[in-house]
């Protein structure tokens, strides 16, 4: 608590200034008037004993005290109003912050939910892609295995094809190749039956002539005129000439010479079975047929064998 004391001294007969420290005896001599004021102030506010009492307008000290109190109340009101405004502002800010935070929280939660849903979809798509990738990898492996097998088969087939092509154009020594066939012209003579046996022993048979081109090839191989047994006979049925493969002799053109085939039975009918095998008279410009004995030692001729290449 702070105590304020002040005194003012007025002298009626002396105009000189009063002095606060003068002794009481001077007042008696000069008839002095003293006005004193005592005031109390406290930082925590007036105590009940210091509260102003009823104001007396005639009392100058009450007026001053009234002014002081009025000023203090104004300050209190101002402070109170300021505090209220401050509290209102703080509450308003807190409210705004709370609403903003709530809105942000809801938006964040909504965004988080969307992110979670999208992440779930992406995980599902990722699983599907992984499954597809595994399937494609498996299919690719199978295709690679199939390609390897096909390549191996291709190499084998190529090798076989080369072997077959080599064999296709290959004829044994002493044989001649023409149009996919091998031909052998004998240099010695045998009966028709022995000649056929010799051809079969080589994996061939007596020649079967199926075209004029083949006939021309045979003619071109002879410098002079020669007789050769061929694979043509009527032994199965007299007068019906068939090649060894069973096909019937095409006529015309009529290649039989003179009155052949006459199925001659020899002198004094020594060979009653007659002539059942065909022999060709072959030269560069000659191709004629006649029938003769198939297995008579006195009737021997050269022969032509025919075979497939690679025999
Ligand atoms: Ca005959
Ligand atoms: Ca004859």
From TrEMBL:
Residues 40-66 are annotated as: Disordered. The keyword Membrane applies. It comes from the Eukaryota. It holds the Pfam family Lectin_C. Residues 119-167 form a coiled coil. The lineage of its organism: Eukaryota, Metazoa, Chordata, Craniata, Vertebrata. Keywords: Coiled coil, Lectin, Membrane, Transmembrane, Transmembrane helix. The chain crosses the membrane at residues 78-99. One of its GO terms (molecular function) is carbohydrate binding. This is C-type lectin domain-containing protein.
């Amino acid at each position: 608590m702070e105590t304020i004391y002040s005194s003012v001294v007025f002298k009626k007969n002396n105009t000189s200034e009063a002095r606060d420290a003068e002794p009481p005896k001077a007042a008696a001599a000069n008839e002095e008037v003293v006005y004193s004021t005592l005031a109390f102030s406290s930082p925590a506010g007036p105590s009940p004993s210091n509260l102003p009492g009823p104001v007396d307008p005639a009392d100058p000290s009450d007026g001053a005290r009234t002014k002081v109190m009025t000023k203090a109340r104004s300050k209190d009101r101002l402070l109170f109003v300021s505090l209220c405004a401050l509290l209102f502002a703080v509450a308003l800010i807190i409210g705004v912050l709370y609403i903003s935070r709530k809105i942000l929280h809801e938006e964040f939660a909504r965004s988080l939910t969307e992110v979670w849903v999208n992440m779930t979809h992406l995980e599902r798509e990722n699983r599907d892609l992984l499954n597809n990738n595994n399937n494609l990898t498996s299919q690719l492996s199978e295709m690679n295995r199939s390609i390897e097998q096909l390549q191996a088969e291709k190499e084998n087939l190529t090798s076989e094809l080369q072997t077959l092509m080599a064999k296709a154009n290959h004829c044994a020594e002493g044989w001649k190749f023409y149009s996919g066939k091998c031909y052998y012209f004998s240099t010695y003579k045998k009966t028709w039956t022995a000649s056929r046996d010799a051809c079969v022993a080589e994996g061939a048979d007596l020649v079967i002539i199926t075209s004029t081109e083949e006939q021309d090839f045979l003619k071109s191989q002879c410098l002079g005129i020669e007789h050769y047994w061929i694979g043509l006979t009527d032994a199965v049925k007299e007068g019906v000439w068939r090649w060894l493969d069973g096909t019937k002799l095409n006529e015309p053109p009529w290649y039989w010479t003179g009155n052949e085939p006459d199925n001659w039975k020899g002198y004094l009918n020594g060979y009653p079975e007659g002539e059942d095998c065909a022999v060709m008279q072959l030269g560069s410009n000659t191709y004629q047929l006649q029938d003769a004995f198939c297995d008579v030692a006195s009737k021997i001729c050269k022969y032509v064998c025919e075979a497939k290449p690679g025999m």
